[in-house]
Amino acid sequence: MNLQDWQNNGWLRPHQTDSKEISNLLAIVERDMADATSMDISDDWKFGIAYNAALKLCTIMLYAHGFRPENNQAHYRTLMSIELTIGQHRK
Question: Of 37, 42, 74, 83, which is most buried with the most CB atoms under 10 A?
Fold first, then answer.
């Protein structure tokens, strides 16, 4: 299965990104990674913040391939797309 198959299944839709959008997402990743190392918050919050950073990185990869998830199961589709965006050889 590939990203085009996902689009055909209604899981993705076309998306045209730009450098500003990617820069904004990378800024969120950097902020979240810094926040996740804070000693002033619980481990649960650290995990949630790190999860958000990982989700944003997967979003960047999906956007770079010209897609965005449909609203139904958007987080799941974004995270699961990593295998398709970075390639089987990295599995």
Answer: 74
- The answer to whether 32 touches 53, Cβ cutoff 8 Å, is yes
Residue ranges per structural domain of the chain = 3-90
pLDDT digits (tens, 9 = 90+) for 29-52: 999 999 999 889 999 999 999 999
Quick one: which of 46, 50, 63 has its CA closest to 82? 63
Which pLDDT does position 67 carry in this prediction?
98
